[in-house]
Design goal:
- The protein is of the alpha+beta class and 580 residues long.
- Among the domains are: 118 residues, no CATH class; 115 residues, no CATH class; 162 residues, no CATH class.
- It has 20 helices and twelve strands.
- The strands form three sheets. It has a five-stranded antiparallel sheet with strand order 1-2-4-5-3, with helices on both faces. Strands 6-7-9-10-8 form a five-stranded antiparallel sheet, sandwiched between helices.
- Keywords: Membrane, Transmembrane, Transmembrane helix.
- Pfam families: GerA.
Amino acid sequence: MANLKKFLQNVFLFKEPEEKEAFILEETRQEKEELIEETRQEKEELRSTDSKKGGIISSFFSPKGKKEDESDELEEVSKDINKNLEYIKKTYNYPDNGDLIIREFKVVAKDKNLDAFIVLFDGMVDSNIVDSHILKPLMLLSNVEVKGKEKDLAQYINNHLISHSQVKMTKKMNDVIEEVNFGGAGLFIDEIDCAFACDVKGWVQRQVDKPITEIVIRGPQEAFTEGLRINTALVRKTLKDENLVVENFKVGRRSKTPCALMYIKDIANESLVEEARRRLNNINVDFIFDSGELEQLLEDSTFLPQPQMLSTERPDRTANMIAQGRLAILMHGSPFALIMPITNSDLLHSPEDAYVRFPYSNLFRIVRFVAVILSLLLPGLYVAITNFHHEMIPTDLLIAIESSREAVPFPSVMEILIMEFAFELIREAGIRIPGPIGPTLGIIGALILGQAAVAANIVSPILIIIVAVTGIGSFAVPNFAHAFSFRILRFVYIILAALTGFLGITLGIFVHGIILVSSKSFGVPFMAPLGPRTSDGVTDKLLRSPIWKQENRPDYLNVQKQRKQPKISREWAEREKKKR
């Protein structure tokens, strides 16, 4: 009875809404330290509570075998090479791992034969580098007297024998394990309390090729690959700025997938960079394989249909976004870069817009905007007009529509849902079928299916036209994820139109607009600079100004250097005016 009374009070009694703090991008160092300390105390309290209960909770939910907090890691590299060799074999389940290579050999130094071994994975390293720059010098050229301690011997080997550029001396066994897992090699020598982590990657990877999803007629024809360093080099080759910073991160507790955060140090907002670092450092999952998974772990709202980060495979577009003051995240194993923060207008722009004259790009943008409206609202408008608002159609057209639907047994909402699902099915099948058969299947399948549906009186002929125009409009959206969000919302507007006509569509647009205006991408309003409206200095919103008038970077990014070019960038034209 008391619970029922409390429930009714919560439902019917008015309460002042609780004030929630707005999102603040800035975060002081003291607040971070306090948050870390609170988290540590909570974990300690949880462990102590569980231990008092006899570990029942942890033993019930933890799998049998090694516990979560137990570790077999050897913290430091031992001077005894046998311990190091035993640990490496145990860690990598040797000899069960068929592609693991452990090469044992001798190093002659200080009148002694020192045991040594190198560990690597077959197929992931460049064998020529390992043989020529590591094994050959150590096995054939190491008979040199070295005076001093073991540290001097390690320095001598590093400075005089190993002729490879990317070698790191480390005392942590975990550093060697990570290097070997990522295509490197670990070198251990007896009586030396450190190991040599050698970056000798040599796996087969795809070379730089043309873009597949962001095709342009005019502009660079290069695309990212699955190699992280190739991708960062492509961006650096385009920008050529000494202030371009590439910060390295590793995401995934077990996969430790390398990724890079790229920005220009004297342009990007420092608070934005710090926020990106905070999110990357606080991802707690075992494995991450693609930038699509990373995007879902970094975005502000996981339920917003529209993407809150721009995914691009073009180095030139990535460089352009970084030059504006944005950030880019590149991930090993993914040919797509993540750009943040972004706005709704950025998702409607094509990489080609910057390479053509502004009248052409403005025409393209108007066409895309119309395509978005048609893709989102045209089926819903058809349902609303045919069911509720007959007076809006001219009499001759109304008679033609009704006569074509006379033999159709389904209501308009049912037939349009049937055709929309059929079109989505054909589109999905065309994507999944390999080779050139896919697009051919999509075109022929749509024609045959549409003609057969009309002949069988399942749908009306005008509905085929509406579904075709809707599908073409969705193809005109440059960003695939953005176009997919319109495909989902299209069904919502169809249902709203079937329920209440134009009233439902208006209500849907109103709610959709509120959601978009209240959304953010890394602290930046998603609908900026339109809602909330910023200064009139933004010259690249829905339409684009001439390139010589684009003097400032977007003000909603709060960059350190707002101006990107002087007021008079075409000095030759100004001089000609003065001569006249």
